[in-house]
Write a structure and sequence with these properties.
- By secondary structure, this protein is α/β, with parallel strands linked by helices.
- It has 6 helices and 6 strands.
- The protein has a 6-stranded parallel β-sheet with strand order 1-3-4-5-2-6, with helices on both faces.
- α1 packs parallel to α2.
- The longest helix has 16 residues.
């Protein structure tokens, strides 16, 4: 899904009464904030498909919109949509484990785990996710170990029917260098792009 250039953060936050109660805060690795919800996402003509696909992914995690890949230019609301998905799934399904991570943080955690000999806990943490949200996946280009780990994580979670949502500032076909295995996986994603 490509996001249009007319999508931006809201000028002013909505009143707190528009947010789910604090008790509905999703169980996540990184806190998802109520300011990143579907209610305050500014949708434009070019982002309607991305917005609709994101909402559908929340209605049936692991279903028809799985995996979901949202791509578009910088500042078009991809991260906002990604966090909205996590927040909404967590609100609707509090028992779900929602993991939000940037590809850079995933890479850093992997390198740290390899250096310290603790890859098993690293893998266990990500494989325990009911929902994996990965932002800025374009940064794994050229990172062979990260791509290998991501491939195995992706395959296992997808095979277990878990929801995967990835964002990038470019389409999967233009993320280079990317391993053939990941290219094949990304080619079978439900793509939604945001455009100006």
């Amino acid at each position: 899904i490509v996001l249009p250039a007319d999508v931006s953060e809201p000028a002013s936050p909505r009143s707190p009464s528009h947010h789910p109660p604090a008790t509905a805060q999703p169980r996540t690795e990184a806190p998802l904030q109520p300011r990143y919800t579907f209610d305050n996402f500014v949708s434009g003509e070019g982002s309607n498909l991305a917005y609709a696909a994101a909402k559908r992914a929340c209605e049936a995690p692991g279903g028809a919109y799985n995996p979901l890949f949202i791509h578009g230019g910088v500042g078009l609301g991809k991260t906002h949509l990604l966090k909205s998905i996590g927040y909404e799934i967590g609100r609707q399904r509090p028992s779900f484990s929602v993991h939000f991570v940037t590809s850079e943080d995933f890479t850093h955690e992997l390198v740290t785990a390899i250096r310290s000999g603790s890859t098993a806990p690293f893998r266990a943490r990500y494989l325990s996710a009911d929902v994996l949200l990965m932002d800025d996946v374009q940064f794994i280009a050229g990172r062979e170990a990260t791509q290998q780990e991501m491939f195995h994580t992706f395959d296992r979670l997808y095979g277990d029917g878990k929801q995967l949502v990835l964002t990038s500032d470019r389409s999967p076909q233009t993320i280079r260098p990317l391993s053939d295995r990941l290219t094949t996986r990304f080619d079978h994603l439900f793509l939604s792009s945001q455009s100006p």
